[in-house]
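Dock zinc ion; give full complex structure.
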Amino acid sequence: MKTASILALVGLVVIAAAAGWVRQQNQGQDSKWVPAEQDSRSPKRKDKVRLTEEEWKKKLTAEQYRILRRQGTEPAFCGAFYDNHKKGTYSCVGCGLPLFHSGAKFDSGTGWPSFFQPVSKDNVWTRPDNGFGMVRVEVLCARCDGHLGHVFEDGPKPSGLRFCINSEVLTFKEDK
Ligand SMILES: [Zn+2]
């Protein structure tokens, strides 16, 4: 009996660990999750950028691919742009679409580049993200459907929004 109880306990621990592992593998994905380019909310644009996963892997660095194509997140305070105070435009590393201007950037203290608005609401789109047991809103590029980060409702006025974006998926061109 005693051995059986111990075995049952070990079994439960293994199942719990496995469940946690599965959740980690499905980062950013809820039960109804579909790839962004298959999501009906993805904006219809004439200039849409569509590559195969193999083509994306060739075009991007491994870290860019992990974030842009696999809903990854870079570590806080490590990216190239969270502390960038130069004037210019931030564009998508996947397709070159301008996404944010330095005029909308602010120091959020989070360690990720933070903006209160995109250059145009047509250049990004959003969808719910219930991964990691959190209710968040994912921000994606309107042209290539790449994952950029998340948007939160604790930003500065007037928008009240905080677009929390990964440096890795941005390129920066300084204003001349
Ligand atoms: Zn893009």
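Observed: Residues 21-26 have pLDDT under 50 and may be disordered.
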